[in-house]
Amino acid sequence: MVFFAATRRMEVVIKRTGGLVWKNWPMNHTRRANAKKRHVRLSQVEAVLKACAVEPTPEKMVQPQQEQLSK
Question: Are the CB atoms for 42 and 50 separated by under 8 Å?
């Protein structure tokens, strides 16, 4: 089982007088669950992109159309 450590969310708050202030939002169970789901979703997308980036070798490629034409 993989341990997931959610971090605190930081949000930029724009002051009316100008400048930026970082506001801390405390981590609650809803934000932690959403962060965990986001982490799983991103890791799945990265795995798919990594698998698609590797070109298959010719030995592993099956070409059923040529087999049907030869019969």
Answer: no
Give tens-digit pLDDT for 6-21.
565 666 666 666 666 6
Cα 52 to the center of its chain, rounded Å? 15
Alpha helices (runs of H) in the chain, residue ranges in sequence order:
29-53, 64-70
- In a domain, residue 43? The reply is yes
- Which 8-state DSSP code applies to residue 4? -
Q: Domains in the chain: how many in total?
A: 1
67 lies in some domain? no
Rounded Cα distance, 50 and 48, in Å: 5
Q: Which pTM was predicted?
A: 0.47
Is there a domain that residue 68 lies in? no
